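Reminder to self: keep the SMILES exactly as supplied, no canonicalising. Ligand is fe (ii) ion.
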Amino acid sequence: MITWGISANSHDASLAVFVEQELVFASHSERFSGIKNDADLNTKLIQYARKWGEPDKVVWYERPFRKTLRQLWAGQGWFLKENNIRNYLRRYGITCPVQYSTHHRSHAAAGYYTSGFVDASVVCVDSIGEFETLSIWQGSADRLDKYYSQGYPHSVGLWYSAMTQRVGLKPNEDEYILMGMAAYGDPEKYRSQILEDFFYYVNGVEVLFKENLHRGCLHWRPDLKTEQDQYDIAAATQSIYEEILDTVLAHVSKYLPSRNLVLMGGCALNCSANSIAHRYFDRVWIMPNPGDAGSAVGAVLSNWNTHIVWPGPYLGYDIQRPYPIKPIIEELKYNKIVGVANGAAEYGPRSLGNRSLLADPRGVDVKDLVNDIKQRQRFRPFAPAILAEHAQDYFDGATGPYMQFTATCKRPDLYPAIVHADGTSRVQTVSKTDNPGFRKLLEAWYAETGCPMLLNTSLNIKGQPMVNNEHDAKLFAEHYGIKVY
Ligand SMILES: [Fe+2]
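Structure tokens returned for the bound complex:
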């Protein structure tokens, strides 16, 4: 029995393949089409997925007709896309039976049924599903029951995206840049104005807004005089979001019995805020692709209502060759920077060692060197990947294998390239089971230099998706003159 989960026709499409109950493949459409955040499926992705055979069933990640209803209700008739999913899939030659999950249940199921927890409180926060914007679930054994649901237009995610657009960034894409800008601003300057202008109140799990922010808030005209004001708005936005998440999680931990938390939805990509979860819960799981693209997996698990063994995030296109440790170490020693494209690509937005641009994190010039190559704003920090057993020697706070939390760096003077302006780092810990090839590379680097970590950022040409196959890797090497192994 082959089951495909599909999340598409909106933004950042993805496809997951299950053979019986084993998750054998999952990838973003963009990696095969070369179009960043590609909303649609493509024939290369589908051809690759067919390596495991024709699907017997597809589970779609949301209810298309309910979504259309909401779009009509919200006056978005101009935005309507195909809502006959059978027709949509037929264009790609997919003709098997189709079943449907709901948007937030797909989020919840992607998290809970991959968590390994026998019980959990599940919190999903995003911009919008069909009508839902924030949902809370109780997971117990194989059951997933809804505890609370907040409906459109009251949406924390839409508000955060609106503020992203208000500071001149791209909504539904650049929220992570707003989060990074926050460290350079004064959270107090616009705080009361934002709260006053946008929020009715935040009470327990209820977060109510004064207006529908679906089309942004470019009409909102605070007194902006300097570029610094943009950073101050970012700081206030991030700080208010963290307070909201804190209030919601405090309520959930008080009223629901489980000591385990599953956090999902696009807002669970906010690594600065995610660390709050550890204040209230003993164990926290965020499936490493918590946004809508992760719902390709979630749709199927929602349909099945059953836990699976989480196979790790290396689920995409597979470049089958031995992990190249020796040449990478040599390149790092002499040129400080090197690309690696090896094994199955990461499912999710983070490069975790198989499609990574790696650099020596020591010294003051590395951050500018890598930022210049990636043509990013100079303020943006990079993440470290560290041998798991050394993490607590260098960082204080939450760490994990998927760069989902931030921890305070104990030696920012030695490793400025991987430390943000607020003194924190988004740490990837690497154990023997997480990624054996990358682990051996870090071990060899440590043996050679005494430094147990590397700077790890995504291997992509600016504006393009992450490198997927051997051809993309070659293009990257030619474009930047950086070796890729
Ligand atoms: Fe979502």
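Points to follow up:
The longest helix spans residues 227-255.
The pocket of fe (ii) ion is lined by residues 103, 107, 126, 129, 265-266, 292 (CB under 6 Å).
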